[in-house]
Predict the structure.
Amino acid sequence: LGRGRDGALPLLPDRQLSLLAARRRLSHRPQAVDEVRKEFIMNIREATKNDCVHMDALLTKLIRYEARFDPNLSPEVVIEDNYAGQIAAEGCKAYVAEDHGIIVGYLYGFTYRIPQVLLQPIAIVDALYVEEGYRGKGIAKDLFRKFQEFASGCGAASIELKVMSRNRDALRLYASLGFCETKKYMALPLPQNGNK
């Protein structure tokens, strides 16, 4: 801010003074500047067919991550052509999170109804994944809120999902979104190769 000929600071409207003060405060907190900048560059949008290759790559990472909790999941899996036929199907919806045009997270889900059994449809979150370097920034919550709007618009009674019992980070996330346990998904490991 330059001084006038008499050496005095020019008078600024209150709004400009508050913006200037905010900039000065942020300039002493570089981490806060990065957080503010990140907020403005993250874009959550509905996925298109062009995004399916990226979503398949993220699903590959999700399954490999979950393999640490389930010994029956292959840590070498590579998913290809999974979402191309699904995202355009009726009742299905996918959202992606972009940072400068690079997809760093996604959510895929759908609604279903069993006539004469369910009074209202149920929405299912089938897959939710955010790249490790982008976790803890609210991206998963933003993706979920988009899907929640979709599910509400479809008249769904609730949103359900399955989560690995030992995946503590996912359990914390879902609890923070308001999920609670209503069913138990149980498994009985069977003997392999005829061993009892």
Notes: The chain has a mean pLDDT of 83. The longest strand covers residues 102-112. The beta strands are 42-46, 92-99, 102-112, 122-130, 158-160.
